[in-house]
Amino acid sequence: MPGLLSKWYTANGFQRSLAEPCLYYQTENDKTVSVLHYKTELFAELIKSYGIKDQWLLSQHLGAEVDQTENRIKIKQSKYAKEILTKVGYLNTHAVGNSMEVNAHLTPSDGENPENTEFPYREVVGMLLYLATTTRPDLAYVLGQLSRFVARPTCKHVGTVKRLLRCLAGTQDYGITDWAIDLEARKGTTGFVFTLSNGAIAWMSRRQSIVALSTAEAEYGAACEATIEAIVGKNILYEILPHHTIILKIGIDSQAAYVMATNPTYSRRTRHIELRWHYVDEQVERGAVKLHKVKGEVNPADAFMNALDKKRHKGLLRLVEVGDSV
Q1: Angle of helix 78-87 relative to helix 155-169, nearest 10 degrees?
Q2: In 155-246, which ranges are continuous DSSP H helix?
Q3: SS3 at position 183
Q4: pLDDT attached to residue 178
Q5: How confident is the model over 239-290, as pLDDT tens digits?
Q6: Cα(123)–Cα(127) distance, rounded to whole angstroms?
Q7: How many Å separate Cα 222 from the centre of its chain?
Q8: Nearest alpha-carbon partner for 188 in 231, 163, 223, 138
Q9: CA angle (314, 193, 137) in 5-degree steps
Q10: Over the chain, what is the mean pLDDT?
């Protein structure tokens, strides 16, 4: 069945992307048509039996609502958010402005007894994770923390999930790195967000795999992770927009990490860094990406690695067009 779909696209003048196997594109007269398919078997059967009809403006896709105007497209999952809140009895709860208490840090709390309630911690975190990875990047950081404790959640962990649900109740329509802040393993968090046409298209909030020995080293590692994601996106854009100049710009708010990536030198302080992190140096030297300094107070990536107050959290997210009125 997958071969049938590929043959259909090829016969109709489409090419399959080398960077993203689910993407097919066709370029003609400086115009590009891109098709990103999801269910191969379903679409193949529709093509074979019924054909594909143009329904004009897309309004729903895989459970997400799509709101399109002449100038922008907004994707949200307000219905799914409402389903989650209804299932756990938080639909009409008193809403809060931020998803996690400012500067809060979660640990396993080995000395504390696990939460002995009927609250479905694992199930709720799983549902919220899906929301965060599809249309709600503002929830990525706190869920990255909460997902580490699904096997043995404590009262504090459950309380944090409940606070997150209260935040979700008030934001249903919402369509960098720190060093050694993880008290459990002394590992930093990599956080970044990429935009295209001013809208967020890719983001990450994940604990780093190594223990960094300095803030600069943690930031340097995060820059490498961001560069890898950027190169993947650049490869796709090169295929579907062959006549356009693609420029990748990555902002970094650490002066030390910026110097390490743009002017690498041998030093006793950096010689121990794993070779794979130097990928960012290579890409900067090749001109594949351009690093630039950005002030920490206006770095939206901070929302993906720290628990912030309501005003700052919303302000940073608006820089990447995430919110209820964008």
Answers
A1: 130
A2: 155-169, 215-240
A3: coil
A4: 38
A5: 888 777 888 888 887 787 777 777 766 455 555 565 666 777 788 888 888 8
A6: 6
A7: 14
A8: 223
A9: 55
A10: 75
pLDDT digits (tens, 9 = 90+) for 25-55: 888 877 888 887 765 555 566 566 656 665 6
Which residues on neighbouring strands pair with residue 204, listed in sequence order?
192
The contacts found for 125-133 with CB under 8 angstroms, 24 or more apart, are: 125/150, 125/161, 126/150, 127/84, 127/87, 128/84, 128/161, 128/164, 128/168, 130/80, 131/77, 131/80, 131/81, 131/84
Going through the chain in order, the beta strands assigned E by DSSP cover 15-16, 23-28, 31-36, 60-61, 64-68, 73-76, 177-178, 189-196, 199-207, 249-252, 290-293
C-beta of residue 152 within 8 angstroms of C-beta of residue 172: no
Could you give the percent of the chain with pLDDT greater than 90? 2
189 neighbors 305 (Cβ within 8 angstroms): yes
CB atoms under 10 Å from CB of 179, counted, come to 22
- What is the average per-residue pLDDT within 169-181? 57
pLDDT band at 305 (very low <50, low <70, confident <90, very high): low
φ, ψ dihedrals at 115, nearest 5°: -60, 125
CA separation for the pair 168, 85 (Å, rounded): 8
- Range 177-301: architecture per CATH: 2-Layer Sandwich (3.30)
Interval 113-142: pLDDT, tens: 666 567 899 999 999 998 888 888 888 888
Q: What are the domain boundaries of the chain?
A: 2-54, 78-175, 177-301
